[in-house]
Amino acid sequence: MKMAATKILFISFLFLSSAFLARSAEVDDESEFSYDEKSENGPAKWGKIHPEWSTCNTGKLQSPIDLLNKRVEVVSNLGKLRKHYKPSNATLLNRGHDMMLRLEGGGGYLKINGTQYQLKQCHWHTPSEHTINGKRFNLEAHLVHESDDGKTAVIGIMYKIGRPDSFLSMIEKDLKALASTKGVERAIGTIDPKLIKMDGKKYYRYIGSLTVPPCTEDVVWTIDRKVKTITKRQMKLIREAVHDESETNARPAQPVNRRPIKFYKPEERP
């Protein structure tokens, strides 16, 4: 009898844990909200669409934010980003407002303060969601990682118009193929996340949230300071592949609320 009760409790725990993870993760179907600020389901009203999305309106650690120089604390003790990525089978999915590259089985991990965060997916926002000293860039990539206990860490990479991005060039035909379909997931074979180039030598670090519903907080954000480049054609392709009527899929900047923002800069050796 005692064993049976223990088994029931364990199963209940697993169910609640999986339910929590489902609620806290980014939604895969983004058709219920929009980025049109005048719309009834626009960014200012995301928190009223579903009770489990209320944090979008009530949270105090929301993302994105403006990374203003006078707010940041320059530090040298965070260390260079410790990424251990590996090739993985991948699929592209049109989620309604963005294109998501899902890495099946995880594409390796990122290590922060002793915690391993598995790389789960990558997606893009145009224009950038985060700003640096009020400046918005043409595109922002988000590499979303999750730990075994459900914590989230995201790396953000900014892009401006310039030379082609080699990774986007590699998946260009797949983006084009999805542009003529809707709600279709496309297997694109093995992808090596190391090809998503980033610098990692200097970066911003702060605690924020997912930038789409349910806007779950306590997300560890790392924003690479080096701005990469894409062509106008690549940026246009990412927007046109998404089936919505909005010209943007970037959430407006959120209040900082006196959060500490650190800027990692390695000490210069004499």
TrEMBL record:
One Gene Ontology term of the molecular function aspect: carbonate dehydratase activity
Region (Disordered): 243-270
CDD domains for the chain: alpha_CA_prokaryotic_like (cd03124)
EC main group: lyase
Catalytic activity of the protein: hydrogencarbonate + H(+) = CO2 + H2O
Enzyme Commission number: 4.2.1.1
Leader sequence segment: 1-24
Cofactor(s), by name: Zn(2+)
PROSITE patterns: ALPHA_CA_1, ALPHA_CA_2
Keywords: Glycoprotein, Lyase, Metal-binding, Signal, Zinc
Top-rank taxon: Eukaryota
Any one GO biological process: one-carbon metabolic process
Residue span, Alpha-carbonic anhydrase domain: 31-265
Pfam families: Carb_anhydrase
Family: Belongs to the alpha-carbonic anhydrase family.
The protein's role, per its UniProt record: Reversible hydration of carbon dioxide.
Protein's name in the database: Carbonic anhydrase
Gene encoding the protein: NEC3_0
